[in-house]
Design goal:
mainly alpha
């Protein structure tokens, strides 16, 4: 590396920039479309398709490495994300707002997934081994801060603008213009601040033919792993209840009382789900990681299964009680998100466990593709199911779907030592 750049100058902002577009595509879009009067069926159908870039990400990640440096991809994708955010803002007030915003959300999703590929690779090139270990918690923290900022503060901003302007479309348009300006600023900053590792510029690049052969070999070896059927079923169905719940729960919180929802304002939603919920999710994830590192994944597996399923009952309670007390709603959402964070640790650790061996990096990427698919498929029809049966019965169906989580987990065979501190694979 020609000149050493302090990692504090770029690692926190890089992962903050990685989190913002994902939150915009997956969460902010839900709230915006609901405020613009779309049905739950259409919202969940259209926004669930936006998972697709993350589903197919492993299949084009080798080509990112082949075409140019990872630094170039990061800077280019941040500019494209900023332009896409501006496009969303520009089209919201127009007559073709649905087609326009969906187009720019799609563009943003593909740019964001490509940015993820480049940023994660650049992290390993821009830092030495010691710095990689030191900053792994920092990158995770700033990704979470981006989640709180996007899902919490930005949604609150849009809600407050609605009160000031008395115009829903104009308010959300202004908020997205603000996001576009923020991302252009991040693009300008990273164009200056990101280091230029020699390894990134001089890395030998494979030909297209070599890449296709390598990709084919990776896929073949992935499906030849022991317990492949049980492993893939676990990856696809462990989160099935959450795949149903994730989008509809957000819509339930802001839907009007006469529709069976809690009727929260965007500002209240930003506090409940974007702040308290994210804190619960983060704390649950931290505790899950500590537990697994102490006693191993196998020891905690069924506790984590219970944690990711049983708290879904809070939405059954909320749909029947319809409390107006914001403290009660916050507590319920915190419990559900804390349980999800704790239980999700088992899922992420199993992806690492399944990926062990030859091509572990590529196999892990394929596992994350299945993870995205596990959220995409149930999300496609979750809104239609909810509008057919109502919120109360929908949340009961989610709880019943938790049986799938228990069934697929029961078929797993996991090394008792995996995840413990003395395990070299952990």
């Amino acid at each position: 590396m020609k000149q050493k750049t302090n990692p504090w100058a770029w690692v926190p902002t890089l992962y903050f920039a990685e989190g913002i577009p994902y939150v915009a595509v997956m969460t902010i879009s839900l709230i915006m479309y609901k405020r613009l009067g779309m049905s739950n069926t259409d919202i969940t159908l259209y926004t669930s398709w936006l998972y697709l870039p993350w589903v197919i990400k492993p299949f084009w990640s080798p080509f990112v490495d082949m075409i140019s440096s990872k630094r170039w991809w990061i800077v280019a994708m941040q500019l494209l994300i900023g332009a896409a955010l501006g496009g969303v803002a520009f089209t919201i007030p127009g007559p073709f707002w649905l087609q326009g915003t969906l187009f720019f959300f799609w563009l943003m999703a593909f740019a964001s997934a490509t940015h993820d590929i480049a940023a994660d690779g650049f992290y390993m090139l821009g830092l030495d081994q010691h710095e990689q270990a030191l900053f792994v918690g920092i990158r995770s923290t700033f990704y979470r801060i981006a989640t709180i900022f996007g899902q919490g503060l930005l949604v609150m901003l849009a809600g407050n603008l609605e009160v000031v302007t008395r115009n829903v479309r104009y308010s959300w348009s202004l908020m997205f213009y603000f996001m576009a300006g923020l991302f252009i600023a991040l693009w300008l900053y990273h164009n200056w601040a990101l280091p230029r590792p020699d390894e990134d510029a001089k890395k030998k690049r494979m030909t297209a033919h070599e890449l296709i052969n390598e990709l084919g070999h990776t896929i073949i070896t992935f499906f030849r792993k022991p317990q492949v059927v049980a492993g893939i079923c676990f990856m696809l169905f462990y989160r099935m209840p959450e795949g149903l719940l994730a989008k509809v729960s957000a819509l339930f919180l802001i839907d009007a009382a006469h529709n069976g929802g809690l009727g929260l304002s965007p500002a209240e939603y930003g506090l409940v789900q974007g702040t308290v919920g994210v804190i619960g999710l983060t704390l649950g994830g931290i505790l899950g990681g500590i537990a697994a590192s102490r006693d191993g994944l196998k020891r905690w597996l069924w506790y984590m299964v219970a944690a990711i399923t049983l708290p879904d009952l809070v939405y059954v309670y909320l749909s029947y009680a319809l409390p107006s007390n914001l403290m009660i709603i916050n507590i319920c959402v915190f419990i559900e998100q804390f349980g999800y964070g704790f239980g999700f640790s088992a899922y992420m650790l199993y992806l690492i466990y399944y990926s062990q061996g030859e091509h572990k990096t590529s196999h892990y990427a394929l596992c994350t593709a299945l993870m995205a698919l596990s959220m995409m498929i149930p999300g496609l029809f979750a809104g239609a199911l909810q509008e057919t049966v109502g919120y109360r019965m929908f949340f009961i169906i989610v709880v019943l779907a938790c049986s799938l989580t228990y069934i697929v987990t029961s078929f797993l065979k996991i090394d008792a030592d995996f995840g413990k501190k003395n395990n070299s694979q952990a």
